[in-house]
Amino acid sequence: MTDHHTGDGHEHEHEHPDGAVRRVLHALKPHSHDSATAIESAESSAGAGVRAAWISLIGMMATAAVQLAIVAISGSLGLLADTVHNLGHAITTIPLLVAFRLGLRPPTSRFPYGYRRAEDVAGILIALVIALSAALIVAESVGALLDPRAMTNTGWVLAAALAGAVGNELVAVYRIRVGRRIGSAALVAEGQHARADGLTSLVVVFGVVGTWLGFPRADAVVGLVVAAAILWLLVTSARTIVRRLMDGVDDGTVDSIATVAGAVPGVRGVGRVRARWTGHRIEADVEVSVDGAVPVRDGHLIAADVLAALVRQVPHLHHAVVHLEPADGMARPDVPVT
C-alpha cells in the first residue's frame, strides 16, 4: 500500500518567468496545477475560513452597533430584541473560529485523522441555533397575533431593521461564497444563520409597514412565513452537515476519483474507491490495478502519478491512500474486503 500526503513540494511541469518577475507574479497570484479548479491547500483554505469568519464577525458587530445607536434614540423594545438576537449570532462565530484553528493541529495518536471534524460539530451547534431562532420567531408571531402591540418611533425602527437585513445578507453572501469555495459546510451554515437573522429583521420591516397601513398584525403573519423560510434553510444546512458526519460525499465525487485514477498511464483498472470529508477537506483511498510484472519502483511511481492527478483534478482532496493490485488479481469493487 502506498500512502501519500499532498503538499506544496511536488513538481511543476509548466514553465514560469525567471527571477524577480516570477517571484512577484507568484506572490500576487499563487498558481495551481489546474486553474479550472483552483484547488487550495488545507492550510490556505483554513486560513480563508478564519478570515471569512473574522471579517463577517466585524460586519455583524458594525450592524449591531448601528442598531444599538438607533435603539438608544428610539427606545424600541422590539428593535432591542432584534439587536440582541443579532449579537447572539455574532457569538456563535466563536465556535467556528475555534474549529478552524483546531483543524490546523497535527494528528495525534489519540486523534490519528486530526481535528478537522470539529468543523462539523460547530455546524451542528449552528444548526441548533438556527432552529432556536425559528422557534423564537414562531413564539413571538403567535403572541403578536393574539395580542397586537403598538409600535412607536416607527421611522427609526424601520431604518434599524433595514440596516440589520442588509448587513446580515451581506455577511451571508460572503460566508456562503467562501464556505462553498473551500468546502466548509459549517461556514455555509453560518452564512445561512446570518441570512436567517436578516429575514428576522425583515419581519420588523413588515411590522412597521403594516402599522403605517393600519394592519398591526402584519409583522405576526410575516413572522410565520419567515419562520418557515428559516426552517427550510435549517433543513438545507443540517442535511449537508449530517451527511458529512455519516461519511457521505457529494454525488459524483467517487465517480470522479475513479475516472481520474483510471486515466493515469500505467493503471489497468480501478477497484474500490472510498472518500469522506474531514472538515472542509476530502480524504480518499483508491485501489488500482497495474501490470503484475512491473518492478516495485515503477509501481510506486504509478501510485505517485495517481495521487498527483487526484490532487490536481479533484476539488478539496487533501490526502489519498493508493493501493496497488496486480491486474490479474484485482479484487472486484462490489465484493466486501474483510
From TrEMBL:
One of its GO terms (biological process) is intracellular zinc ion homeostasis. One of its GO terms (cellular component) is plasma membrane. Its main location: membrane. Keywords: Membrane, Transmembrane, Transmembrane helix, Transport. GO terms for molecular function: cadmium ion transmembrane transporter activity; ferrous iron transmembrane transporter activity; zinc efflux antiporter activity. InterPro entries: Cation_efflux (IPR002524), Cation_efflux_CTD (IPR027470), Cation_efflux_CTD_sf (IPR036837), Cation_efflux_TM (IPR058533), Cation_efflux_TMD_sf (IPR027469), CDF_Transporter (IPR050291). PANTHER family: MITOCHONDRIAL METAL TRANSPORTER 1-RELATED (PTHR43840). This is Cation diffusion facilitator family transporter.
